[in-house]
Specification:
heterodimer, A: mainly beta, 16-stranded antiparallel barrel, two-stranded antiparallel ribbon, 5 helices, 19 strands, B: 5-stranded mixed beta sheet
Chain lengths: ~425, ~150
C-alpha cells in the first residue's frame, strides 16, 4: 500500500501542471554558476611527520613542508541547471590535493534531483553521505566557523560520497521540522600510502545511511546511522598469508581482514546558533569489525560574534576502543620452521593495529568577515597524540615519537562566488 | 488531489487587512514583513518568518507554498530584516546559503532590487512574503502581524 501511494503521488506530480509548486510562475530552464574556495597555509612544528586534513591527502605540513598550502587550499565550481520546477541537475567540480599529490580536478557531485513536493525529493547520482552536521559542506570553508572541521570526528569515516540514490522527506510542524534522509549506493576511494608508496583503493558497497535532522528555531539535532560493506584489496595479501598457516592463521585473518566487511557507524549531533554565538557538539562511534578497529570521536565547539569578528574554541578527541595489539599466533602451535615467517606476519598486523588514530586537539581561532563573500581565518591547534599512537599524522620519519604533541598555526581565506 | 483543492481554495480567499511591524528602535524607518493584501496569512511568529527565509520550511501555516522574496544583497533593509528576524548578519546569511547551495539542497529566495518590484511579485502570488520599509507599504500589500 505505501508503495502504491508513493507511485500515485509520483504520477500525479509528474503529470499535473498544478502541483505543489504551481503557485510559482512557470519558468524555462535556468542555469546558475557558482563556486567557492579556500587559500590557506598551515604550519606544523613537528618535522618528523605530516599533518593533513584528511586521509585522502598525500602530503601535508611538518615533514614535507614546514608551511603547507596543500592542506586547506581548494577551489570548486558548481553548475545548477533547473530543467523545470521539479527536475534539476547539479555538477560540482573540485580541485584539491589528491592521493597522488596533484590538484587534478574531480567531480565531487553530479546528480539529478526530482522534487516531488516541496518536502520530498529524490536524487540520483553522486551525492554526499550527510552523516554529520558539516559532512556535506566540509569543503565549503566559508560556510563553516573553523578553518577545518575537527578531524577527530570527521576522519572517523573516510567515505563521504555516495554513488546511488538519495531520498529526503521533511515533516513540518508549527515551529519545527524534521527531515529524514535515506541514502543507498556505493563509493570507490583512492588513499595514498605514506611516504610516496603509491595508493590503495577502498571499495565500499551496499552503503546505507539513515539521517534524521530535527530543527526548531536555532536548535538542530541529528541522529545518523550508516553501514557499508568495505573492501581494501591492498590488505588482502597479508591476510591471505595468514590463511596459509592453518586454522589459527585463518581465524586471525577472519577477525582482521578488510574484505566485504560490514562496517557500522552511529552519530549524534546538536547545535544551537542564536546568531550572536554558537555552540555545537557531535559524537560518533564507528566499528569497522577488522584491523581498522572500533573508534569513538567527539568534539564540542563554541564561538561568539563581535560584529565582523567571530572567535571560537574547540575541543576534540578520538580514541580507539578495540585492541591496538594482538598476541597473534600461539608460538606453541607453530612449527619451528615457519616461526620466523609467522612472527613477521604478527608484527605486520600489530603495526597496522598500532597505527589506529587516537588523539585530541584543542583549537582556538577567529573568523573575520572583512568583506562581502570573503572570510579570513586564523587558527591555533595543539594536538596531543594518544599513548603510543601516531594519531592522524602521516609520512612518519625516523625519530618520530608516537604519543607526542604538536602545534599548528593556520591562516586561510575562504570565498564564495 | 487534496493539494489541488488547497491551491484553488486559497486562490479564492477573501481579502483582509492587518498590520503590525516587527518593531525596531533603529534610526532608520522600520522594516516590515509583508504579504499580498489577498493573502489569508495574517500573522507569523519571528521563528516562522526566520524558518521561511532560511529555507527551513516550505509552507505557510495554512498549507500554502511559501515563496519568500529578498531584496538584493547589500541592501540595508535586507540586513535589517535578517538582523531582526533571524539575528544574523549578512555574512552569516551568506554562510547559511553557501552551506545549502553547495550541497545541492536548495537555492536562496529570489531577489529583487526595489520594493516596487517586490510589491508587483507579491500582488501576483498570495503565497509570497517579502519585506520593505514601512513607509513603502500601500494597499497592495499587508504588513504581517507578529504572533
Amino acid at each position: 500500500m505505501p508503495n502504491a501511494r508513493i507511485l500515485a503521488a509520483a504520477l500525479l506530480a509528474m503529470t499535473s501542471p498544478l502541483g505543489a509548486v504551481a503557485a510559482e510562475p512557470a519558468s524555462s530552464p535556468t542555469l546558475s554558476l557558482s563556486g567557492f574556495g579556500t587559500l590557506g597555509v598551515v604550519h606544523s612544528d613537528d618535522d618528523k611527520a605530516d599533518f593533513t586534513s584528511s586521509p585522502f591527502q598525500a602530503v601535508g605540513a611538518g615533514h614535507t613542508r614546514s608551511w603547507s598550502a596543500a592542506v586547506d587550499s581548494l577551489v570548486a565550481a558548481q553548475a545548477n541547471l533547473d530543467i523545470n520546477q521539479r527536475l534539476s541537475a547539479i555538477v560540482q567540480v573540485m580541485s584539491t590535493q589528491n592521493y597522488d599529490d596533484t590538484f587534478r580536478p574531480h567531480v565531487e557531485w553530479a546528480n539529478l534531483k526530482y522534487q516531488f513536493t516541496p518536502d520530498f525529493s529524490v536524487r540520483v547520482g553522486r551525492t554526499a553521505l550527510p552523516l554529520f552536521l558539516v559532512t556535506d559542506s566540509i569543503n565549503v570553508g566559508y560556510a563553516n566557523p573553523w578553518i577545518r572541521p575537527p578531524i577527530e570526528l570527521y576522519n572517523l569515516l573516510s567515505i563521504t560520497t555516495n554513488d546511488g540514490l538519495d531520498g529526503s522527506y521533511r515533516w513540518q510542524m508549527r515551529s519545527a521540522s524534521d527531515t529524514l534522509q535515506a541514502v543507498t549506493g556505493r563509493t570507490n576511494n583512492e588513499f595514498p600510502i605514506p611516504n610516496g608508496g603509491g595508493s590503495e583503493t577502498a571499495d565500499s558497497r551496499r552503503q546505507l545511511a539513515l539521517v534524521d535532522t530535527f530543527q526548531q528555531g536555532f536548535t538542530t539535532f541529528r541522529l545518523s546511522y550508516g553501514q557499508a560493506h568495505l573492501s581494501i584489496p591492498a590488505l588482502d595479501p597479508l591476510f591471505d598469508a595468514f590463511r596459509q598457516f592453518g586454522p589459527q592463521g585463518a581465524q586471525i585473518a577472519d577477525g582482521y581482514a578488510v574484505h566485504d566487511r560490514l562496517i557500522r557507524i552511529l552519530g549524534v549531533s546538536a547545535s544551537y546558533e542564536p546568531g550572536d554565538w554558537f555552540a555545537m557538539a557531535e559524537w560518533a562511534r564507528i566499528n569497522l569489525h577488522s584491523v581498522l578497529g572500533e573508534k569513538t570521536g567527539w568534539y564540542a565547539s563554541g564561538g561568539h560574534r563581535f560584529g565582523q569578528l567571530t572567535p571560537y574554541v574547540t575541543y576534540a578527541q578520538a580514541k580507539v576502543n578495540s585492541n591496538t595489539s594482538t598476541a597473534g599466533f600461539n608460538p606453541a602451535d607453530v612449527p619451528p620452521a615457519v616461526a620466523a615467517t609467522v612472527s613477521g606476519l604478527d608484527s605486520a598486523l600489530n603495526q597496522s593495529l598500532a597505527s589506529l588514530a587516537a588523539q585530541s586537539t584543542i583549537s582556538a581561532g577567529a573568523r573575520w568577515d572583512f568583506m562581502p563573500d570573503v572570510a579570513l581565518k586564523l587558527q591555533f591547534d595543539h594536538i596531543k597524540l594518544g599513548a603510543e599512537s601516531q594519531g592522524w599524522l602521516t609520512n612518519l620519519q625516523p625519530g618520530f615519537r608516537p604519543g607526542s604533541g604538536l602545534d599548528l598555526v593556520s591562516v586561510a581565506i575562504n570565498f564564495v562566488f | 488531489m487534496k493539494r489541488l483543492m488547497t491551491f484553488n481554495g486559497v486562490a479564492a480567499m477573501r481579502v483582509l487587512g492587518f498590520a503590525v511591524c516587527l518593531a525596531s528602535a533603529a534610526t532608520q524607518a522600520d522594516v516590515v514583513a509583508v504579504v499580498s493584501a489577498k493573502s489569508e496569512t495574517l500573522s507569523l511568529s519571528k521563528d516562522q518568518l526566520a524558518d521561511i527565509f532560511l529555507g527551513r520550511v516550505s509552507r505557510l501555516p495554512n498549507g500554502m507554498l511559501a515563496v519568500p522574496i529578498d531584496l538584493a544583497e547589500g541592501a540595508p533593509l535586507r540586513a535589517a530584516f535578517y538582523a531582526k528576524v533571524a539575528d544574523r548578519s549578512p555574512a552569516q546569511m551568506k554562510a547559511h546559503w553557501s552551506r545549502i547551495i553547495f550541497t545541492g539542497r536548495g537555492l536562496p529566495p529570489k531577489s529583487v532590487a526595489t520594493s516596487v518590484e517586490l510589491k508587483k511579485l507579491i500582488a501576483a502570488n498570495p503565497g509570497s512574503i517579502g519585506y520593505m520599509d514601512e513607509t513603502d507599504v500601500d494597499s497592495s500589500v499587508r504588513v504581517l502581524k507578529s504572533d
